[in-house]
Specification:
The chain has 509 residues and is mainly alpha-helical. The protein has 26 helices and two strands. Among the domains are: 70 residues, Serine Threonine Protein Phosphatase 5, Tetratricopeptide repeat (Alpha Horseshoe); 75 residues, no CATH class; 69 residues, no CATH class. It has a two-stranded antiparallel ribbon. α5 runs parallel beside α7, α21 runs antiparallel to α22 and α22 runs antiparallel to α23. The protein is elongated and about 90 Å long.
């Protein structure tokens, strides 16, 4: 029975963790090629004049950034929203969430004081104060504050009352509170858009926000799951609580529940993994590394442990050892192996182990064929290790999955040129030009094609047009390369006896 609980817990932990970590790496990868997918002038005309970011858009972006631990960027968005509509409270409380997750307690104290002045009767201020006590691990003060208000507590405070009671082993009261909360009405949104603009929804005090309802349901589900196992012991219950709290960014509480589970069963490996992950969420990477190493010693064959250990090693600057454990995890081919491959690509690229990097890209392209993620793969195979056949293999699969995608066409055209398949390259690039006659990347690749065919004057004209089309638009890398290639060709045409300028990569940036 215990093994059943552990297996289920492992899967749920991984689902929660991989979603965030995978996104972070893919975001980094997308930054390298931002200009590659920018709209052409003709596309901009069809889409209309770009609008400034809306107020609601800022809040959504801030929440997205916060979920993936880009706290500074989230703060910028929220500060802009507050400056735009200082009379609305939601961005202030989202900012409080940023401070809690990033451990900025001094800023949280200042924010609470500001909220007391601007929104003196807002019930969520007390929630921030309770969570501040919890962050400081002052659970006695937190519970005393909550017990003082008793039935006058808002739903949010009742939730934290239930959590602290559970931490103190008073599960009967905790479950009762959660069941009471689950029966409250749920409001759909915090804000609404009217003819007058964005306004806050006036909701009954005794109702649940979407985020609060999600936490209540998840925690109540722990008790319902635990009740199914008659031979269950408290370590399992506390570990399940820790998992749910970690999923909902309550890292301090997750750590506390995991520590209780460890004290009650020091050999319970999942508790060590969960405490390590709670440390990881708090950016205490050395502490996380200790727990994951201990979990690995307890079970060196578990891919989940190998993966978490690798993550912590990477965060502490031990990339070489991290790569070893990522590779170990990958040998098991478990459910989230694609995320491991992306992490390995990041590390091994920095270590210049390009053959292995391209193997990983080749594995990934079957299941995640998004063209902009593979620009580095095409460049590496053509220009770095000069194995253009690999580039062609990857580009063919990208185009098969994205037949009308301009970037996929350009990557395929580039790979065809590198493999000296000029007729096929001409066909695909002309098709791309027909779909968007003002895409500078296509003109750059047509110039590369003509240059490889020895048609230098024609190639120079294509490079010139690529530069002109991209000038003043977000195509800096394209126009820079077009300019370099144009100047080099003009020099070669006008002064054929002069040594050529230093070679630039025959790449499509």
């Amino acid at each position: 029975m215990k093994k059943t609980i552990i297996r289920g817990l492992n899967i749920l932990i991984l689902i929660a963790i991989f979603g965030g970590i995978g996104w972070i790496f893919r975001e980094k990868l997308e930054v390298w090629v931002t200009d590659m997918t920018s709209p052409s002038p003709s596309q901009i005309e069809r889409q209309g004049v770009p609008r400034r970011i809306s107020y609601l858009g800022r809040l959504r972006e801030a929440q997205r950034l916060m979920e993936h631990e880009y706290f500074s960027l989230a703060t910028i968005e929220l500060s802009a929203a507050i400056a735009e509509k200082p009379h609305l409270s939601q961005p202030y409380f989202l900012l409080g969430e940023v401070y809690l997750r990033s451990g900025q307690m001094q800023k949280l104290s200042q924010l609470i004081a500001q909220l007391r002045q601007k929104f003196p009767n807002h019930p969520d201020i007390a929630i921030l104060e309770a969570r501040q006590h919890i962050f400081k691990r002052d659970f006695v003060s937190a519970l005393a504050m909550l017990e003082t208000h008793k039935e006058a507590l808002s739903p949010g405070l009742k939730l934290y009352q239930a959590i602290v009671l559970a931490l103190q082993n008073d599960h009967a009261r905790a479950q009762e509170i959660l069941e009471t909360l689950s029966r409250l009405p749920k409001r759909e949104a915090e804000l609404t858009v009217t003819a007058e603009g964005v306004t806050e929804v006036s909701a009954p005090l005794q109702s649940l926000s979407p985020a609060l309802a999600e936490k209540v349901e998840a925690l109540l589900g722990v008790y319902e799951t635990f009740d199914e196992f008659a031979d269950g012991k408290n370590p399992h219950l506390f570990a399940l609580m820790a998992k749910v709290l970690a999923e909902h960014h309550e890292a301090i509480l997750a750590q506390e529940f995991a520590e209780v589970a460890i004290k009650e069963d020091i050999g319970y490996i999942d508790a060590w993994i969960l405490r390590g992950y709670a440390f990881f969420l708090q950016q205490k990477y050395e502490s996380a590394l200790e727990d994951f190493r201990h979990a690995y010693e307890m079970d060196p064959l578990r891919p989940q442990t190998q993966y978490f250990l690798a993550l912590s090693l990477e965060k502490t600057g031990n990339d070489t050892e991290a790569a070893i454990f990522f590779e170990k995890a990958l040998q098991h081919d478990f459910e989230f192996s694609s995320e491991v491959r992306w992490k390995l690509i990041e590390i091994l690229s920095a270590q210049q182990k390009f053959d292995r990097v391209l193997d990983l890209y080749t594995d990934l392209v079957e299941e995640d064929p998004e063209p902009k993620k593979y620009v580095s793969a095409i460049y590496t195979s053509i220009d770095v290790i000069q194995r253009p056949a690999i580039a062609l293999n990857i580009a063919e699969k990208l185009l098969a999955e994205n037949p009308d995608d301009l970037l996929a066409m350009n990557l395929y055209g580039w790979a065809l040129i590198a493999n000296k398949q000029f007729v096929a390259a001409e066909e695909v690039l002309q098709k791309a030009k027909t779909l968007d006659p003002e895409q500078p990347r296509t003109f750059l690749n047509l110039g590369l094609l003509r240059e490889k065919q020895g048609k230098y004057i024609e190639a120079a004209e294509w490079y010139k047009q690529a530069y002109e089309l991209g000038e003043g638009k977000p195509f800096d890398s394209v126009i820079n390369l077009a300019a370099e290639k144009y100047n080099a060709l003009i020099q070669q045409i006008n002064q054929p006896g002069k040594p050529p300028a230093p070679a630039v990569p025959a790449s499509s940036p």
